[in-house]
Amino acid sequence: MPRPHAAKPANRVAQDMDSSPPIHINAAVPNDDPTDDSVQLAGVRLHELVARLETVVVGQAGLLRRLVVALLCGGHVLIEGVPGLAKTRSARALARMLDLPFRRIQFTPDLLPADLTGTQIYRPATGSFDVRPGPIVTSILLADEINRAPAKVQSALLEAMQEGQVTVGDETIILPPTFWVLATQNPIEHEGTYPLPEAQLDRFLVKLRVDYPDRDSELAMLELPSAVESIRDADKSNLAPMFDEAELLKLRRLADSIRVADAIKGYVVDIIRATRDPKAFGLEIEPLLELGASPRATLALVRASKAHALLSGRSYVIPHDVKSLAIDVLRHRVIISHEAEAEGLGVDDVLQQVLDHIKVP
Predict the structure, then answer these.
(1) Using CA atoms, how far apart are residues 247 and 223, in angstroms rounded to an integer?
(2) What is the domain count for the chain?
(3) 118-123 and 335-336: which strand pairing?
(4) Fewer Cβ close by (within 10 Å): the C or N end of the chain?
(5) What CA–CA distance (Å, rounded) separates 35 from 33?
């Protein structure tokens, strides 16, 4: 019996999220909810968090906002982008501002599960085995090039992501409540890779696509005093911790308390069901879809929308919250057909058609 051991945004929706107006402390929201003040205050602090991150990670505002949204609901993130787009830098900067333990693992084809979860060490003096936890026992884990790891390693990570624990021999190590996985994969290299199975992809709250920054942002990078420095050497005043573990858990509870009207819930369900049975919603895209989103996608989209509302300083969800994150939540849960690929359509294009068609409440 195991014993517990302590232990490219390239769509209109993404652009809408990036261009959200700043939230002010006196923003007009209903006053009948006693949590409104705390939600507005949290929104202001979270915007300050994003603003500080943008001083050291230039040109990736959309990525930073989405990372904060995923953090607020404890959802794991899969980031897809070519090398050199500040994926690792963003994760390191965010971990530093949260004052949480951070580990980075470079996944390779020869990686073993024990390299991730830990191992047992024999002690001749006592004749017993001691467990030495692996790098997965942390708060923020960056899994670089996750699709280069073999299936055994991916399954070990899946247990940690789903159950919040890892098993080493006959010991079960409980992971911290703030355990959060940021995984990256390179979309242009497929040789020597192991594509993630659908079951594991579904465990990620969002799949983010990172594109190149614009010209002005790239010029601004050259002006940063830390342009060629690591996050460890960057300006400490900008990366001073803003939240500790207790405050982060409080923010997550606050995000979970955000109100969702019945009309918004119906809107979310209609979006998800339209990916399974588009004809029922008057959409002529059935030949383009091979597999629709599961009910887990419905739950994930509501969670993400609540977190986005909190980031915006609101105690209630509006349709903009849902539309801003729908493609990020669904792009790895929906499979398009070969016919769609033959027509030059990607999963984002098909999902955009769904969002354009479903009536907004």
Answers:
(1) 33
(2) 1
(3) unpaired
(4) N
(5) 5
